[in-house]
Amino acid sequence: MELIRLIAAGDRQAFQLLYDQFSDRVYNTALSYAQDIQLAEEITQDVFTRIYRSAGKFQGRSGLSTWIYRITVNAALDQVKRRRKYRLFQFGGPERELPDFEHPGVLLENREHSKLLFRAIDSLPANQKTAFILSFVEELPRQEVADIMELSLKAVESLLQRAKKNLREKLEKWYPGRRN
Amino acid sequence: MADDKEDWINSVMGSLAGSERAQPSGKLFARIEREIAAPTAKVLNLRQRWFAAAAVGLVLVLNAYTVSLYLQGGATTGTESVSDQQTEESIISNYRLYDL
Predict the structure, then answer these.
(1) Which residues of B are less than 8 Å from A52 in CB distance?
(2) CB-based contact A41:B35 (threshold 8 Å)
(3) What is the pLDDT of residues A64-102, one digit of tens each?
(4) What SS3 class is residue A39?
(5) How near does any CA of chain B get to the CA of A81, in Å?
(6) ipTM given for this complex
(7) How far apart are CA A171 and CA B40, in angstroms?
(8) How far apart are CA A66 and CA B79, in angstroms?
(9) CB-based contact A157:A128 (threshold 8 Å)
(10) Which one, of A137, A174, A104, lies nearest residue B8 by Cα?
(11) Residues A71/A30, Cβ–Cβ less than 8 Å
(12) Residues in B touching A103 (Cβ below 8 Å)
């Protein structure tokens, strides 16, 4: 709270401190949505700009981390929606698929499988995608996910169940041993 | 066969285990600082936009009215009205113009 108060007063050192504490969390969340390093950096830049400009409005009703994650989720969903519209407009038809995303932090032996998982995550509806990313990629506690999404715990659990079901159904279609 | 498929799906679902967090570019904070230092354009809210549109509309209507008045006034030029003629005759007779 003190940090935010200093940032609201224009303290650049406090802002740098906040950035050092939260940039990797914001960036990794953005990366899961954008599945593109450059776009994830743009989202991160957008998030910290929003934080700086709206620091004075933070009232401390939620935790600082919750507030920052909420801004990140909204910024990421906005950017991804904008990119989809742009690509639809540019190509004039059904959306072209993104190239497979290689997350830079994934273990080498899991790279190929993680590409498929991210491709499947990208196909989820926004709410399920958010619940899944925050719970299983960011590994946040369920209650914090509920606070970020401003939903009940039960609603988050329901979203996660549906997300996992949809992901498994998608992966089933891509199973290499599947007979066509 | 079904077990293989389930194992494969489970393996994909668990492929992020042990991952490390990726780090953003070292230059990103400098870019953020440049953005927050740049002056922000004032964005009008909806009510202000409506007022602005109404003001522009009023100016256009007034201009159109003025132009239409001007064009109407120009349509009567070249045909003198009766009262104009009478005034001219009165001036000529009062001042005995053209009497040489």
Answers:
(1) 32, 36
(2) no
(3) 999 999 999 999 999 988 887 776 666 555 554 667 898
(4) helix
(5) 22
(6) 0.86
(7) 46
(8) 81
(9) no
(10) A174
(11) no
(12) 16, 19, 22
